[in-house]
Design brief:
The complex is a heterodimer of chains A (about 130) and B (about 425).
Chain A (H helix, E strand, L loop, with lengths): L1 E6 L8 E7 L4 E6 L4 H12 L2 E2 L2 E7 L5 E6 L3 E2 L3 H9 L2 E3 L7 E3 L9 E3 L16
Chain B lengths: L4 E6 L3 H12 L5 E4 L15 E3 L8 E2 H14 L4 E2 L3 E6 L2 E6 L3 E12 L3 E3 L15 E3 H9 L8 E5 L3 H12 L3 E7 L8 H8 L6 E3 L1 E7 L6 E6 L12 E4 L2 E4 L3 E3 L2 H5 L24 E3 L10 H21 L7 E6 L2 E5 L2 E2 L7 E8 L3 E10 L2 E11 L5 E6 L12 E7 L2
The chains are: A alpha+beta (about 130), B alpha/beta (about 425).
Chain lengths: ~130, ~425
């Protein structure tokens, strides 16, 4: 059994949770410090299957701006954040890219795609200014 | 008098776009949006993280995705917008701007909505000793460099201030391979949302030093290190508590200031607390026909509330265009006992909408305290709160249907009280 401390993000209260967790059976034994049931649910999710949406940007060639913003289409296991970032860093795309289009299929073996979160059009010849 | 435009909206960020859509929905047709950059969307373009739209669209979007939805509506509604256009001055019923295609233009207009947003407090506002080396960025500027231009800002980072942009950038820099050594916050609590503390700092084991500030920046050409020092309750550094960090970059996330140079030109009265215009329940400023919404009015935590506030400004501005100036008898809304400010600062109880939303912030972190709203001395409403924090904007609503002689009310008061 291990004891973990977490801050619940269910509401602005931010309860400090103390969680007794059975690592072998992956089971929550006891949660304390929470003032509502959200704390239990949050602790359970964070200790058994923590997930996140990863947002980042990918280099784009010939675009109006230097990078196109991206995200994982669904939440991914927290442990996969850095492998996904490696894949993102190794990728360059070519303008134009449209919002919602898939830029990396099945990123880092997670069965989740990386999609563009904005449209970046091709840079016009006369415009060299990439600042907003 | 015939005006060139019914309504001119200054700024095409989240506030300007939502105000434009709402004014069109409410029957205003001769609208112009003016935007200084080449894109719509304002600050949302560089806020590539997610968490936007939970209130408005009931799903989590990134900033650019949230902006794209409004941009599409603006295009679908054929609302005219001048991009790459800088407003130089405004007055009641006129706006002067300049751009490359039209040159210098002055348009008359019936109403104006101010939606210029805010800017960051810079290093100059902080008086930190040291040279002026490169490597010191306001957090939002670093965010733009990374997220729009794809540039790297540094390898070893210290962040001063725990505002949301600073927290978001701590995670962003970590994911990009930089090492964020510390976040220092002068106050004993964070100015950012709890969610951001957990998902941006705790997730990556980045230490947050509360009641700490930076008292020295080292390096002449480039930042080489900073000195962190604990502060007392008076926020003055305590001797013998220094910590040194070798770093090449310092990000400042130390507050935002509404951008009101244009408002001042038009003699719009500003609040010394919000640094935004003083407004009534229609979000009209002290100058008839000039309305304000979004971060130019007061700095928000969530874009969803900006959109909501801007939609109200759009509706009220179009009412003004339709019906002309109304005689209003505004009464003040006083903030006391732990309430720092409210928006609006005054209301007209006889003319107000059926329900109005008062947004406010508290001065300190309070546990198990209530927020009370009074009309004269009569308690209208009391809400129990488990927690109140300066970093989280709060709201309370006033209903016109409340059984009270509104014509006898001389002032409203909002304050925190002990929960009995």
């Amino acid at each position: 059994m291990i004891i973990k401390e977490l801050t619940c993000i269910g509401c602005p209260m931010g309860c400090q949770l103390t969680i007794e967790f059975d690592e072998i059976q992956k089971k929550l034994l006891h949660v304390s410090g929470n003032q509502c049931p959200k704390g239990n649910r949050y602790a359970h999710k964070e200790l058994t299957n923590p997930t996140r949406i990863v947002t980042s940007s990918i280099k784009i060639e010939g675009g109006e701006i230097g990078v196109v913003s991206v995200k994982t289409q669904k939440d991914i296991p927290k442990s996969q954040i850095f492998p996904i970032m490696d894949a993102i860093h190794q990728t360059t795309v070519i303008a134009p890219v449209y919002i919602g289009s898939v830029l990396i299929h099945d990123v880092a073996g997670t069965h989740v795609d990386i999609i563009a979160t904005k449209t970046v059009l091709t840079r016009k010849k006369e415009s060299t200014d990439t600042t907003l | 008098m015939k005006y060139d435009k019914d309504l001119i909206i200054i700024g095409a960020g989240p506030a300007g776009l939502a105000a434009a859509l709402s004014s069109k929905e409410n029957g205003c047709t001769n609208i112009l949006i003016i935007e200084r950059s080449q894109y719509m969307g304002g600050i949302l373009n560089q806020c590539i993280h997610n968490g936007f739209g939970l209130h408005t669209f009931h799903q989590e979007l990134t900033g650019p995705e949230y902006a794209a939805r409004y941009e599409k509506s603006i295009q679908d509604q054929h609302i005219p917008i001048s991009l790459n256009t800088m407003v130089l001055s405004i007055a009641a019923h006129s706006v002067t701007y300049v751009n490359q295609t039209e040159g210098l233009v002055t348009l008359t207009c019936h109403a104006i909505i101010l939606a210029m947003g805010c800017r960051e407090r810079p290093r100059g506002a902080l008086n930190i000793p040291g040279y002026r080396p490169s490597g010191i960025y306001p957090a939002g500027t670093a965010q733009q460099l990374m997220n729009i231009e794809g540039k790297s800002v540094g390898k070893r980072i210290v962040i001063l201030g725990s505002g949301d942009i600073g927290l978001i950038m701590a995670r962003r820099l970590t994911l990009e391979g930089s090492k964020v050594l510390a976040v220092a916050e002068i106050m004993p609590y964070s100015g950012g949302l709890k969610r951001n503390i957990v998902q941006c700092l705790d997730d990556f084991h980045i230490p947050l030093y509360l009641s700490h500030t930076i008292t020295q920046i080292e390096g002449k050409k480039r930042v080489e290190g900073v000195t962190l020092q604990k502060v007392g309750t008076d926020r003055k550094p305590i001797e013998g508590t220094t910590m040194h960090f070798d770093c090449d970059t310092l990000l400042l996330s130390v507050g935002l200031i509404p951008e009101n140079e244009l408002s001042i030109q038009a003699h719009v009265a500003l609040s010394p607390i919000t640094h935004g215009p003083l407004v009534d329940d229609t979000l009209q400023t002290s100058v008839a026909g000039i309305f304000a919404c979004g971060n130019v009015l007061h700095v928000h935590d969530l874009v969803d509330f900006v959109s909501e506030e801007a939609a109200l400004a759009g509706k009220m501005a179009s009412d003004y265009v339709k019906n002309g100036e109304k005689q209003r008898n505004n009464i003040p809304l006083h903030c006391k006992n732990g309430v720092r400010y409210s928006v609006p600062q005054s209301i007209d109880p006889l003319e107000m909408e059926q329900e109005i939303t008062i947004r406010f912030r508290v001065t300190d972190v309070f546990h198990n305290r209530s927020v009370a709203l009074y009309a004269n001395k009569t308690l209208l409403k009391k809400i129990k709160k488990k927690i109140l924090a300066p970093g989280e904007m709060e709201t309370i609503t006033i209903k016109k249907t409340q059984d009270i002689a509104w014509n006898e009310v001389q002032a409203l008061t909002i304050q925190t009280e002990e929960t009995v």
